[in-house]
Batch of 3 targets.
Target 1
Amino acid sequence: MKTKPTYITIENLNISGMMKNKYLSKAISNQRFYEFREKLFNKCKFYGIELRIADRFYASSKTCHKCGSIKEDLKLSDRVYKCSKCGNTMDRDLNASLNLRDTKSYKVA
Ligand SMILES: [Zn+2]
């Protein structure tokens, strides 16, 4: 039975850039993010799981998981991703997660 993933992909978030946004800065703590990443890195190392850091400029949220088209006008408040090209409608975070899972734009931590 397969009990662990082969790899985990996380986003390489531009935390300092996000801290400059007054709407986001309250929700984000730089310190906590790096702590989490450090812990995840250690766990992955221990269990032999490849930790992938997606390219900072990879548009995981704006890209349609089904057809690959990019929705430039996606707002932070849009919780559901609706593709104007192929009609794909899914939860915003699920769409982004599937893109991260499948992306080839990453480096191994
Ligand atoms: Zn689409």
Target 2
Amino acid sequence: MSSLVTARRLARDLGEWRTAGPAYRTLADRVRVLLMDGRLSSGHRLPAERELSQALGVSRTTVAAAYAKLRDDGYLLSVRGSGSTLALPGGQRGSQPLETGLALDFTKATAPAYPGLAAAYQQAAEQLPRYLGHDGFDMTGLPELREAIAASYDARGLRTSPDQIMVTIGAQHALSLLTATLYSPGERILVEQPTYPHALDTFSAAGARLLALPVSAESGWDMAAAQLQIRRSAPSMAFLMPDFHNPTGLSLDVEDRARLTAAAQREGTVLVADETTAWLDIDRGPLPPLASFSGQVVTLGSLGKLAWGGLRIGWIRAPRELLARVLRNRPSMDLGTPLFEQLVATILMRDLPAMMANRALGLRRGRDTLVGLLAEHIPQWEVHVPDGGLSLWINTGTVSTSALALAARAEGLAIVPGPRFGLDGAFERYLRLPFAYQSDQLAEGVQILADVATRVGSSPLRMPLQAVI
Ligand SMILES: Cc1ncc(COP(=O)(O)O)c(C=O)c1O
């Protein structure tokens, strides 16, 4: 069954879509961008032409021409009586992965596997026979892994017992489990703007109403807005990345950690601190974990960025009674974390300092190379240099990054347009560029961006309000 995208939602996701060139073509291109980056999928039904023309304030002819173009290009199927349904050329399902067949894929903020990873897999294979007498369904996590994870919090000054840890299939799974446990229909969730896109996917799949917590490279977290939102709307949960925030690379300072946890505690808002990026320190140094300020903070962790995305091991650190609720919800989603990967993770946790040092080295090299290339080839872009994380969050000033993504794609480079990281089509002028790539790949990518940026040109965009929805 196809689900209808309302005219209001489409207008919101399109944001400031109008740039130079015929309106119908820009509109068709922008719908394709949404399909490319996963905000729309094949099977979604587009609104009627009249409704969309009203919502966008353009003529019906413009919308009809945009739909006709999408149809001609194979992105829309129109059946009389049942509207226009998005499709992918060649009958593929889902959204159109940005990286399809492209030489350079800058869509993921990930890093290559830790060099010691293959040896850890081999060692785990030797240990595996000892575990085969067990039924293999593991919903809470191997005791030795939970101990190692708890010890990593102890080492950061946050006393943790293994029974406060549940091992999950990556942090994304942990977030889905937590959302299913903490969120009830009708409630609100406070989320950073910009944020990690798949967190937005998780919250919209739950039908959540989202409140924005603005984060900017210039002034960090907007604490006044956060405190106001929490006091006024008492969201059931707030999702944030206090350490090397994805995409900006910023860290929440110590006073703001204290202020935010106090505000959340007063209103009963559960703060979910996603620490997937917390071990990606280049030159910042340690800060106290958010959970050390309040017992009401739930923390997500992962080995995905430090060891390898393909390992798929993450965890939740939470009060025992909350973990018990998560455990009751878990069987509807999965029946446990694979044992072999947990053995690998246990071995890797012994190597934590070495993994962090190795990562810092690679990230520093990538960050400095990319910053240098951008300064040389696209000096007009405003680049804030982060002290950790995996990416630069660039203010291009006037470039529509949706148009840039389409043009770059034609040259073999996949990038994610800024609005994928926000609500309401915000951040059209922003671009996230991950830097954990080889220098020659970064150089090639920046060359393409410099070329297409001049071609796409610039247009003074009016940024939409960071509205509460
Ligand atoms: C902030 C953040 N949270 C969660 C995830 C997902 O982590 P995992 O691969 O452990 O599921 C990512 C991965 O990109 C991320 O950047």
Target 3
Amino acid sequence: MQNSEPIWDLVDEHRKEFEALSDRVWGMPEIAYTEYASVAEHAAMLREQGFSVTENVAGIPTAVMGEAGEGGPIIAILGEYDALPGLSQEAGIAEPKPIPGTGHGHGCGHNLLGSAAMLAATAIKDWLEKTGKPGRVRYYGCPAEEGGAAKSFMAREGAFDGVDAAITWHPSAFTEVAKAQSLANTRMDFKFTGRSSHAAAAPHLGRSALDAVELMNVGVNYLREHVPDSSRIHYAMLDSGGIAPNVVQAKSAVRYAIRSRDLKGMLDLNERVKQVALGAAMMTGTTVDISIMSAVSNLLGNRPLEEAMQRNLERLGPVPFDAEDKAFATKIQATLSDEDIDNAYLRTGVPRREDTPLCDFIVSLDTHGEPMIGSTDVGDVSWLMPTVQAHAATIAIGTPGHSWQVTAQGKTPAAHKGMTHAAKMMAGTAIDLLEDADLLAAAKADHQARVGKTAYVCPIPADVQPPLQPRPKEAA
Ligand SMILES: [Zn+2]
């Protein structure tokens, strides 16, 4: 492996500090908009490394930004640090064993995500200082990726203004340049109001909000046949109106997630779902209050940046896992089904390899599997500027996303190697952009062609605020 370019040496110089940061954040799992301790760790590390720090970015107390450098283009490196509820788990063991406490855990590896992103930003800052070249680097600590769409709110508030290109990554089972595939997604609440009455003595006087929710769900289930294949619609009951069957339920509420391949498709589908809700209200003599809680745009790819990152990856080679890393990953794989492992390869498009518990190869840029299509708030950033994402292997192949196995692998030596690798992929790509004006111009032209004439409009309406959470007293 020719792992010796100056920018990668700068990453290696700092790796221990950032592995420790990642481990600390792993140990303080905080869910969407409650990341007060995690953001404090990130802000402190930014100051320690000499960044100028902006807190409370876009009015979000758990968002932070650090900037360094002068003049030139501005490269943003995006990090995250939110955890997931219900995924508490001891580190380094291959059996489910929650840690007593909140029940939260880093089941998506965002402890690694934020630390590697800031590690890359720090190496870029050092490189700018050493070379004296014009250019600026910004690290954005973005909270609430899991269901909170913080980057979309930050995008709407102009937090990314002035940035020329954005780079990020996600922990993964495979080492590759991420394929830009995600769905635009809206979370919308439907609150029905009717009239309660005695369900036996005076049912004719009641107007059931629960009936309205049920009819809405039935209506949407019929709508499914007539939407594009790539669309997804799912719902969860927020309020079923109470537990008494002898009361006509006067209030009931349901939350929908409405996903579509692109922004326009999502906005169209949102309207169709709203019409179904209005129909349900009409059928039941109730009223409905409809509000968007959050939304994210689909991801836009960027071929010049993806190719530049792939060139970095090819020079870098695979993550240098050793026999011990593989031995633990083999234990984790023993907790998975054969189907989990098959599925991981299918999603990535790489033929299955036996005796390969960890990804000890790199995936080529033109390998296309059947990616698992979810949604991410990186989508909104990708509509504003050329954006590219890396995947670096930090977990055993087949590990399901959002699982106790991800939490269990969040502090392993393999995870640390994967995060350093990701930092090198990101920092190397940023240096290419800072040194090569033609690359930046090509990335911008590609971006412009994808955005087309439709200027980006944040899918979250201007009057919707992020669901900020109060600072816990002990952390104040
Ligand atoms: Zn994630």
